[in-house]
Amino acid sequence: MFGKSQNIKKYFISILGLIVILIFSVQLGYGQEYTIKFGENWPIESSRGKTALLFKDILERTSEGAIKVEVYPSAQLGTQEELTDAVKMGSVEMAWVYSMTVNNKFVIYSMPFLFEDWEQAMDTRDSPFSKRLNEECKKDGYYIVATFFDPPRNITNNVRPIEKPDDLKGLLIRVPPLDTLRKSMEALGASPQKISYSDVYMALKTGVVDGQENPNLQIKDSKFYEVQKYLSLVRYCIYPGTLALNLDFYESLPSKYQKLVDLAAHTAVDYFAWYVRTQMGEYEQFLREKMIVNEITPENHKLFAEKLKPLYQEYINDGYFTQKEIDEIKTYLESRK
Are 43 and 130 found together in one domain? Predict the structure, then answer.
């Protein structure tokens, strides 16, 4: 796919830009010091945690210590919702959050089976639609420094393999506090449960819930395979996330610092994308060795898609997005093939 080569190319371009700034940063004349509190819900040893540390390392090195980054993993500064509010208020300068908690228009990207695969989802980051959304976020006090899409979301549980929608009936499935995921589980017959990410492992272990849904990346990093028996590769949603900065804080930085923040974030996220791209197969193989894993047949996949199709019209009716915007995204994706 053309988009895949473009993503790889952009990663190396950002690395080249980083090298150039590293060479010349000593000449930038830094003075006042700044601190960025970076909050996230994932453990520091996870892939996202390591990406946050990479951002910290790049920014502190290129600014020669003028910008300090304090990383707070594992929901130390609050849940996803609390972090989103904290960034808006400025009590936390930066957080990795789900896009629609910043601007509910991003819900369009979370619609089930919108994308053919993860690479296609990543291509939309440079679309005119995405750029318009990023600009809109400024009205609410957010600066979107970088965007990322989680790998496809799958379902784990301790009761039975999920091969068709009816297999989810009656199961207690933990979902994040995100409307499309909750409604998707409801439409498939499950009973969605809201539990903070930091508490999911224990909830699964103690049987408070039967299962959860997440990308394989999170299933492995959070060791859910230790407390779950079945993994069903439904791949029903590819969810968008953002690195969001408090806009007032970002605009208070001298332009030379803003460029360093942008470059550090883009480089770290591009590295994360490269890591996910190269590791997705290994993550799945690892989980196959720890759990009972089943694919979804093409026929049953259509059953899942049909069950979730009405959600599109529901969100259109509620004013989140329009059919014209859905068509715009699909036209853009076709042009990238």
Answer: yes
Residue 8's contacts (CB-CB under 8 Å, 6 or more residues apart) are 274
- Residues 179, 327 share a domain: yes
User: Count of domains in the chain?
Assistant: 2
Do 45 and 184 belong to one domain? no
Q: Which residues have a Cβ under 8 Å from the Cβ of 93 and sit 6 or more positions away? A: 35, 36, 37, 38, 87, 245, 246, 249
Q: Are residues 183 and 307 in the same domain?
A: yes
Q: What is the pTM of this model?
A: 0.84
Locus of tokens 């609050």: 78
Interval 272-298 mean pLDDT: 94
Q: Choose among 218, 188, 233: nearest CA to 279.
A: 218
Which residues form the domain of 29? 2-150+239-280
Shortest CA distance to 276 belongs to which of 175, 149, 181?
149
How many other C-beta atoms lie within 10 A of the C-beta of residue 312? 17
Q: Are residues 64 and 205 in the same domain?
A: no
**pLDDT exceeds cutoff 70 at 42:** yes
Q: Are residues 173 and 299 in the same domain?
A: yes
Residues facing 67 on adjacent strands? 34
Selected residue with higher pLDDT from 196 and 11: 196
What's the pLDDT at 48? 87
Q: How confident is the model at residue 287 (pLDDT cuts 50, 70, 90)?
A: very high
